[in-house]
Amino acid sequence: MATAFSSDGAEVMQRAVIPAEASGRPPTTRLEEFYELERAAAFVSDNGFTKVALQFPDELLPDSASLASKMEAATGAKMYILGDTSYGSCCVDEVAAEHVDAEAVVHYGPACLSPCRKLPVLHVFGRKQLDVARCTEVFRELYPDPLAHVVVLNEVAYFHSLDNLASQLHPIYPNVVFSQLDNKELQPVPGLVQKFGRHFVVDSQHGLDNYTMFYVGCEGPELTNFMLSWNRCPFSSFNPQTGQGRRETLDVNRALRRRLYLVERARDAQVVGIVVGTLGVADYLSVLEHLRGIIQQAGKRAYTLAVGKPNPAKLANFLEVDIFVLVACPQNSLLDSADFYRPVVTPYELEMACNPARTWTGSYVTDFRHLLPGACEHTPFPNKVSEADSEPSISLITGELRSTCLYTAPDPEPSCGTSVTCRSYMHIAESSPAASFLESRSWRGLEQQLGQSAVTKAVAGRRGIAIAYEDEPSG
So what's the pLDDT on residue 14? Predict the structure, then answer.
């Protein structure tokens, strides 16, 4: 295990301080320019907001107090600083904003651009510097053919430089397409691709699978998400921090094989833990209900867990759970579960395991909203199949035969007025996998042992604090 279940805190005390220029605002960029103070103030004033939450990732927190003071002076509204978010910092923390009755959120820094449920949100990505000339040079080295069909994707902090980059590339590469932010409702047009808060239009006759993707940004979960989602397209990238470009050598097939192995683990699982990884992304409650439904129809038992940011220590408390499914934004859902005692899968992978009507088509879905009824990737669950009519399935991991019959919700037990029916512990264990797991343990916690412990008279205990009790010698 790479992550210990407990520590003395030495790692936190000895953690190196990251310089501001390495992670946050470049020292040569003015605060007002980097955080687009004028645009953010206009968002607050034009809508008449009086309480606004300013959400910062850890690397931008040093600027939070100064920026909040400038925002209050420019708008007259009360500003509240949000840090150490409950889940991923790329998601809008609506729960923390509601604690102070905020009317809107200004989200700073990297963002997954997932739609929110309640509050109006303004995204300020931060204007990181991009050497457009160097990026153009790298692009020409990677794509010597001027007729190459390329889609340019980018890290959100470099959106402000795309117009300059496009002016350099379009005269040479007529088939280059630049992604744009989704800032309004789009009308369907041939070749429109809309994912992850971005959209672009490709040549419908040429086909998206025949395009190459060029990513402007640093290596991270966003790039991995793009590569798995568009796994038929070759990827290359330009790192603005190093000024170097490369053809991405991530073995997408190997990554997909790893994810499909987790699907097989999910097929073998009997108890599924649904881990809530977001409280702000739209439709997260709908997908929780959707997952409970398909888990029940597959004959498995589901438990819903809200543990904040998941880590091995937290999830190891639920040993009765065979596999976890994480409901989070696309960037945070692809969690590397190598350090966890139980695998962690995405909603799409769990649906592949539970829904026999869904088959692998080569496309990978990381946005759980696309799985809901009426969405583009929704696959209805087939009708109920009896045990006799179901086809046998053999686990590729254990080699054992498993049932593939589908179940429906059991009928509720009839009530008997106001009488209380006493059920034995063994009956509860049979109906609850968690109780059955507890029954198999050799140690089940503290036992009351009523009537077995001798009754003694209470006596006065020790007085003082743990470092120096009154009956201990000083020094």
Answer: 58
